[in-house]
C-alpha cells in the first residue's frame, strides 16, 4: 500500500512528522540525562538496569537516524513501521523501568496519539491495540517475578484504555481538521479560479478600466484601456503625461462629482471616449476607478435615429418635389425640341434641364442615405479583398486612370459589410482620380494597407497627387451638402463616413506634405463586431 505523506495531510502531515521526531528525540535525551546522572536508580524502581540503560542509548541513536533519514516517507508501511518500533522500544523501557510507576506508560500513550495523527483508521487503532496489549502483558510478566506488580493491573488497563481513547479522539479531530483543510483548499481554488476568470473578463472587456492612486499612478489597466488610449503598457506609470485630458476630467470630477465629465479624444484619430469615475477606499488608501467607454456605438444609434427621421422627411417630400421636378424637366425637354426656339432660349432650356438633373440627383442621394440598409459585417481578409477590388476597378477604368496597391505586414482582417466597403472605396477612389486628373495628364490613386503600430488596427490609406484640400476647408469636407464643385451634391464624403461609422470604422482626412490628399480608413478589430 503506497501513499505519499501529502495524502496524510500534505504540508501539515510533514510538520506533524517532524513533531513526532522531535518528541522521540526529546524522550531519548531525557532518558540519557537520567541515566548519565545516575538518577534512574533513585527515581525509578528499575527491574533491569542494564536493559534500561542500553535500551535508552539505542532508542536515542535509532531516533537520530530515523529523524535524519525519514523526512518524506513514500509508503504508509514506513509510517506504520516507525510507530511500531517506537511502541516496541517504549514498551521495553516500560518493562525495564518497573512498569506503571515509572511513568513511561504515559509517554507511550502520547506516542500512540501522535502516531494516530499520521496513521488513520484501522492502522492507527492497530498501533493503539499493540501498545495496550504490551502494557497489560508486560505488567503480567512483571507480576510473575515481582508480586507487588500485581497491583498495577488497573493502572495498566487504564493506560491501555487511554491508548484507544487517545487514538479515537485524535482520529476524530484529525478527520474534522482534514475536512476543514480540504474545504479551505477547495474554497481557495474556487477563489483563485474566480480571480483568474475575473482577470480574463476584465482584459477582454471593451470598456477601458483604470485604477489610479492619489498620485495618478496606474495600479491596473486592462487591454481595453491601453487600446482606447492608444498607449502601451500603463501599469506603474503616471497617467498625466500620457493622457492629460483624462487627468483634466478627473480633476473636474473631484471638484464636483455630481457633474458628468465631458467626453475626450485621447488620440488625434482615436475614438471619442466618455470617462466616468468611482472612488475606491482600500484601507487607509484612496484610489479612483476609471471607466472609459467608446461612445461610437452610441453615436451609431443616434445616427440610426437621425437617418430614420431623415427617411421619414425625404419620403414625405420626395413625392411632392419629384413629380413637379419631372414635369419641369419634361417641359424643358419639349421646349428644346421646338423649332421656333432661339439660341439664347435654347441655352436657358438647357440650364433648366441641367439643374433639374442635379436636383433629382440630390434627392436620389438623400433617399439612398435614408434607405441605407443595416450593416451586415463579415470577416474580411483585407489583402485579398483589396486585390480583387483593384483588379475589378482597373478592368473598367479608362486608360488615363490608374490605381496602385501596396500592402504591408501579414494577415489583416476586419469585420465590415463588403458591399458598403465597396461603395465607400469606389467613391474615394473616383474622387482621387478626378482631382489627380485636374493637375496631371494621368489620374492616379494609391491604396496603401498596413497595420497601425500604436492601435494594432488595420488601416487603409487612399492617396492622390491632386491639388489637395485647402486647410481652411478641411473641417467642412464631411459636412452634408458641402461641395466645391458646381455639379457635386456634397453627399459623397458624408455618406462614406456614415457607412464607415455604421461598421465601427473611422474615415479621416490627412493632408499630404508633398501635395495631394490622403483619406484614411481605420478598421475595427475583427473581434469588435459580432
UniProtKB/TrEMBL annotation:
<keyword id="KW-0418">Kinase</keyword>
<feature type="transmembrane region" description="Helical">
    <location>
        <begin position="150"/>
        <end position="170"/>
    </location>
</feature>
<dbReference type="InterPro" id="IPR035965">
    <property type="entry name" value="PAS-like_dom_sf"/>
</dbReference>
<dbReference type="Pfam" id="PF25323">
    <property type="entry name" value="6TM_PilS"/>
</dbReference>
<dbReference type="InterPro" id="IPR036097">
    <property type="entry name" value="HisK_dim/P_sf"/>
</dbReference>
<dbReference type="Pfam" id="PF13188">
    <property type="entry name" value="PAS_8"/>
</dbReference>
<feature type="transmembrane region" description="Helical">
    <location>
        <begin position="51"/>
        <end position="70"/>
    </location>
</feature>
<keyword id="KW-1133">Transmembrane helix</keyword>
<feature type="transmembrane region" description="Helical">
    <location>
        <begin position="103"/>
        <end position="119"/>
    </location>
</feature>
<dbReference type="Pfam" id="PF00512">
    <property type="entry name" value="HisKA"/>
</dbReference>
<keyword id="KW-0597">Phosphoprotein</keyword>
<dbReference type="InterPro" id="IPR004358">
    <property type="entry name" value="Sig_transdc_His_kin-like_C"/>
</dbReference>
<dbReference type="InterPro" id="IPR003661">
    <property type="entry name" value="HisK_dim/P_dom"/>
</dbReference>
<dbReference type="InterPro" id="IPR003594">
    <property type="entry name" value="HATPase_dom"/>
</dbReference>
<keyword id="KW-0808">Transferase</keyword>
<protein>
    <recommendedName>
        <fullName>histidine kinase</fullName>
        <ecNumber>2.7.13.3</ecNumber>
    </recommendedName>
</protein>
<feature type="transmembrane region" description="Helical">
    <location>
        <begin position="126"/>
        <end position="144"/>
    </location>
</feature>
<dbReference type="GO" id="GO:0016301">
    <property type="term" value="F:kinase activity"/>
</dbReference>
<dbReference type="InterPro" id="IPR036890">
    <property type="entry name" value="HATPase_C_sf"/>
</dbReference>
<feature type="transmembrane region" description="Helical">
    <location>
        <begin position="77"/>
        <end position="97"/>
    </location>
</feature>
<feature type="transmembrane region" description="Helical">
    <location>
        <begin position="21"/>
        <end position="39"/>
    </location>
</feature>
<feature type="domain" description="PAS">
    <location>
        <begin position="194"/>
        <end position="230"/>
    </location>
</feature>
<feature type="domain" description="Histidine kinase">
    <location>
        <begin position="316"/>
        <end position="527"/>
    </location>
</feature>
<dbReference type="InterPro" id="IPR005467">
    <property type="entry name" value="His_kinase_dom"/>
</dbReference>
<keyword id="KW-0472">Membrane</keyword>
<dbReference type="InterPro" id="IPR000014">
    <property type="entry name" value="PAS"/>
</dbReference>
<keyword id="KW-0812">Transmembrane</keyword>
<dbReference type="Pfam" id="PF02518">
    <property type="entry name" value="HATPase_c"/>
</dbReference>
Amino acid at each position: 500500500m503506497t501513499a505519499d505523506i501529502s495524502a496524510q495531510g500534505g504540508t501539515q502531515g510533514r510538520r506533524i512528522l517532524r513533531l513526532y521526531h522531535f518528541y522521540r528525540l526529546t524522550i531519548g535525551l531525557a532518558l540519557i540525562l537520567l541515566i548519565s546522572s545516575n538518577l534512574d536508580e533513585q527515581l525509578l524502581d528499575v527491574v533491569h538496569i542494564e536493559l534500561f540503560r542500553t535500551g535508552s542509548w539505542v532508542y536515542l541513536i535509532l531516533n537520530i537516524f530515523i529523524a535524519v533519514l525519514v523526512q518524506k516517507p513514500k509508503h504508509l508501511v514506513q509510517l506504520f513501521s516507525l510507530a511500531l518500533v517506537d511502541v516496541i522500544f517504549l514498551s521495553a523501557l516500560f518493562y525495564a523501568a518497573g512498569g506503571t510507576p515509572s511513568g513511561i506508560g504515559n509517554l507511550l500513550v502520547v506516542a500512540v496519539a501522535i502516531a494516530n495523527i499520521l496513521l488513520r483508521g484501522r492502522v492507527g487503532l492497530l498501533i493503539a491495540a499493540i501498545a495496550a496489549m504490551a502494557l497489560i502483558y508486560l505488567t503480567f510478566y512483571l507480576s510473575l517475578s515481582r508480586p507487588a506488580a500485581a497491583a498495577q493491573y488497573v493502572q495498566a488497563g487504564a493506560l491501555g484504555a487511554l491508548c484507544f481513547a487517545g487514538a479515537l479522539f485524535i482520529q476524530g479531530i484529525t478527520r474534522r481538521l482534514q475536512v476543514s483543510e480540504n474545504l479551505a483548499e477547495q474554497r481557495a481554488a474556487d477563489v483563485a479560479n474566480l480571480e483568474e476568470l475575473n482577470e480574463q473578463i476584465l482584459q477582454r472587456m471593451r470598456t477601458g478600466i483604470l485604477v489610479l492612486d492619489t498620485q495618478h499612478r496606474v495600479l491596473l489597466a486592462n487591454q481595453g484601456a491601453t487600446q482606447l488610449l492608444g498607449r502601451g503598457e500603463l501599469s506603474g506609470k503616471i497617467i498625466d503625461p500620457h493622457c492629460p485630458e483624462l487627468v483634466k476630467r478627473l480633476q473636474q470630477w473631484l471638484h464636483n462629482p455630481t457633474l458628468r465629465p465631458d467626453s475626450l479624444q485621447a488620440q488625434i484619430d482615436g475614438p471619442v471616449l466618455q470617462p466616468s469615475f468611482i472612488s475606491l477606499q482600500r484601507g487607509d488608501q484612496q484610489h479612483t476607478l476609471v471607466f472609459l467607454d467608446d461612445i461610437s456605438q452610441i453615436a451609431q444609434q443616434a445616427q440610426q435615429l437621425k437617418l430614420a427621421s431623415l427617411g421619414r422627411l425625404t419620403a414625405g417630400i420626395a413625392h411632392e418635389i419629384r413629380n413637379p421636378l419631372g414635369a419641369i424637366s419634361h417641359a424643358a425637354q419639349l421646349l428644346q425640341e421646338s423649332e421656333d426656339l432661339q439660341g439664347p432660349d435654347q441655352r436657358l432650356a438647357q440650364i433648366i434641364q441641367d439643374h433639374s438633373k442635379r436636383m433629382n440627383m440630390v434627392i436620389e442621394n438623400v433617399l439612398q442615405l435614408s434607405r441605407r440598409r443595416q450593416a451586415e459585417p463579415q470577416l474580411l481578409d483585407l489583402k485579398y479583398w483589396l486585390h480583387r477590388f483593384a483588379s475589378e476597378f482597373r478592368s473598367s477604368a479608362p486608360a488615363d486612370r490608374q490605381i496602385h496597391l501596396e500592402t504591408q505586414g501579414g494577415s489583416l482582417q476586419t469585420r465590415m459589410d463588403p458591399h458598403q466597403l465597396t461603395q465607400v472605396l469606389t467613391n474615394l477612389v473616383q474622387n482621387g482620380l478626378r482631382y489627380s486628373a485636374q493637375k496631371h495628364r494621368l489620374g492616379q490613386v494609391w491604396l496603401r494597407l498596413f497595420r497601425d503600430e500604436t492601435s494594432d488596427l488595420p488601416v487603409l490609406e487612399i492617396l492622390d497627387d491632386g491639388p489637395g484640400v485647402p486647410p481652411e476647408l478641411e473641417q467642412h469636407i464631411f459636412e452634408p451638402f458641402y461641395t466645391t464643385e458646381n455639379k457635386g451634391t456634397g453627399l459623397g464624403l458624408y455618406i462614406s463616413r456614415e457607412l464607415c461609422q455604421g461598421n465601427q470604422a473611422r474615415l479621416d482626412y490627412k493632408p499630404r506634405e508633398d501635395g495631394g490628399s490622403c483619406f484614411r480608413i481605420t478598421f475595427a478589430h475583427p473581434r469588435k463586431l459580432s
